[in-house]
Amino acid sequence: MKIHVIHENDTWVVPLRTAFEGLGLPYEEWHLDQGLLDLSTAPPEGVFYNRMSASSHTRGHRYAPELTAGTLAWLEAHGRRVVNDSRALALEISKIAQYAALRDYGIRTPRTIAAVGKANIIDAAQRMTGSFITKHNRAGKGLGVRLFNDVRALQAHIHGGEFEDSVDGITLIQEYIRAPEPFITRVEFVGGEFLYAVRVDTSLGFELCPADVCQVGDAFCPVGEQPKPAAPRFRIVKDFRNPIVEKYQRFIADHGIGVAGIEFIENTAGEIFTYDVNTNTNYNGDAEAEAGLYGMRAVAKYLGEELARIESRPKLPRAA
Questions:
Q1: What is the domain range of residue 24?
Q2: Using one digit for the tens of pLDDT, what is the confidence trace for 247-281?
Q3: Number of H helices, E strands in the chain
Q4: Which three-class secondary structure state does DSSP give residue 237?
Q5: What is the arithmetic mean of pLDDT over 90-117?
Q6: Count of domains in the chain?
Q7: Which of 86, 112, 88 is nearest to 99 (CA)?
């Protein structure tokens, strides 16, 4: 038996490969940029870890999530152990689905209106009070995130040739949460358990992919030139404690999520607004080295434990 890693981005899997090899775990990668799915066959035994990304289309892998959805349905129909299953994938590729699901757990999200078509995007913005943000419904890496202080600025953007539609055609208009300091918090979970929280400096903009490969040329500032932060952009928070962690744990347990990073921001009143669930989570190497905590090692260990649990099951006799 093996651990099977479902993904579409070789670069993001490098740290996980290193962790597998360090623990001596057998693994195989299923790169689902394209491929065949023979529904008349049965999948191999083992553990299947879904790392499909909502931003796959930005790497030329437009239909990778759709192929992954079919593959997960096939695996689940055969009773295979899937970490971050089809329910998790549905959340990964739709922020609308995320926000709708989060509300059932008492988790507050920013006011959000979904719109298809430029006229409806403008109409949605007119319903907002104060500054607002646009973002893509199927995104990742902060795609489509821009801050606007009024509707006229949005109109100029949409009709000025810079507007980029979401790959699924759905643009979100979201209230701007003004934080007392320019940072957000990302809470990481492995095996459904809290791993750590990382503070992310947002003074350079909203493209917040923590993977080391994303740190080159990823600065995007939607509101003008900003100074370079004096402190590291990613820093793990020591002894993080907050009741939101327990709410997140209940949420991910009910949605087939074993590994995730969930992001929130606090407003000036100290209220928490959750705005993103990342089931294809990455980790920042510098922040982890400073804190002595390593996400991919924890993921590899967890998957190894799941594999061992399956291998220890009693084998059922074959039918005559």
A1: 2-92
A2: 999 999 999 999 999 999 999 999 999 999 999 99
A3: 9, 13
A4: strand
A5: 97
A6: 3
A7: 112
Q: Are residues 171 and 186 in the same domain?
A: no
pLDDT score at 205: 64
Coil, helix or strand at residue 96: helix
Question: Does one domain contain both 231 and 299?
Answer: yes
d(CA 15, CA 210): 13
Neighbour-count burial for 69-99, b at 16+ CB within 10 Å, e otherwise: bebbebbbeeebbbbbbbbbbbbbbbbebbb
Q: Are residue 67 and residue 45 in the same domain, yes or no?
A: yes
Tokens linked to 19? 């962790």
By CB atoms closer than 10 A (0-12, 13-18, 19+), residue 227 is exposed
**What band does 216 get if pLDDT is binned at 50, 70 and 90?**
very low
Q: What is the pLDDT of residues 53-72, one digit of tens each?
A: 999 999 999 999 999 999 99
Helix (H), strand (E) at residue 194: strand 193-201
What SS3 state is found at 187?
A: strand
Residue 253, SS3? helix
Q: What 3-state class would DSSP assign to 272?
A: strand
- Measured CA to CA in angstroms, residue 190 lies from 20, 266, 269 at distances of 15, 24, 30
**Is 241 within 8 Å of 185 (Cβ atoms)?**
no
The answer to whether the CB of 24 falls within 8 A of the CB of 304 is: no
Whole-number Å distance between alpha carbons of 7 and 125? 35
Strand, helix or coil at 14? helix
What is the spatial distance between Cα 287 and Cα 96, in angstroms, rounded to a whole number? 30
